[in-house]
Design brief:
By secondary structure, the chain is an alpha+beta fold. The strands form two sheets. It has a six-stranded mixed beta sheet with strand order 2-1-9-3-4-5. Strands 6-8-7 form a three-stranded antiparallel beta sheet. A hairpin with a 2-residue loop joins strand 1 and strand 2.
Length: 202
């Protein structure tokens, strides 16, 4: 059946302060039965849900700007990013301080209000100077879905799936430029991944 086939295709990769590991569907479901037994915060990008030990379950499905931000900061844990870098690297925008400074300030505050139990002492998203970073000593687990690379995909599609294991997004223009292919080929290849539920268009 379809569900069985997908279980054979998908595996899950977790990023913690101890390193990177992968697990199957059964282990993924087992982790979610008690997500905060081992970790203070579990960020599940598969279902867009965050589990924080004190706050509880937080639905990020309608917060399309915040999940990529949190995911990016976790993957780059310990490194501080300026407002310009966040606009460029997370949302692939052209930074304009007049319009974007408030976007960053609001997004960081919204994220903290959602995941931080103590509003006067941040455990996860911290700031230094003009930058923001995810505390590398935080007890976290980031879960991403990964596809076995022996599927019926070409080398460009396999590359983008590996690339998105550590980066929050890629644009059509970046994909086209990377492989020097035209817009039609770019659309067809990325749309194929979207139709198979490997990627999500935002």
């Amino acid at each position: 059946g379809i569900d069985d086939a997908r279980e054979n295709i998908f595996k899950y990769t977790s990023y913690t302060k101890d390193g990177v590991s992968s697990f199957d569907e059964a282990q993924y479901l087992q982790l979610l039965t008690a997500p905060n037994k081992k970790y203070h915060i579990v960020v599940d990008t598969v279902t867009a849900v965050v589990y924080e030990k004190e706050v509880g379950k937080i639905d990020f499905s309608s917060r399309s700007m915040l999940m990529p931000l949190l995911e990016f900061l976790i993957l780059k844990k310990g490194k501080a990013f300026s407002k310009e870098e966040l606009i460029t690297l997370v949302w692939h925008g052209n930074y304009n301080p007049l319009s974007h400074d408030n976007v960053i300030y609001t997004s960081i505050n919204r994220l903290r209000n959602l995941i931080e139990a103590k509003k006067d002492k941040f455990k996860y998203v911290k700031s230094i100077g003009n930058g923001y970073f995810f505390d590398p000593i935080a007890d976290y687990c980031l879960i991403k879905r990964f596809i076995k690379l022996d599927e019926d995909l070409n080398f460009r599609q396999k590359w983008v799936l590996e690339y998105l294991m550590t980066e929050p997004m890629i644009t059509n223009k970046e994909y086209s430029s990377k492989f020097k292919i035209n817009r039609t080929t770019t659309f067809l290849e990325l749309n194929s991944l979207v139709s198979k539920n490997f990627l999500e268009r935002i």
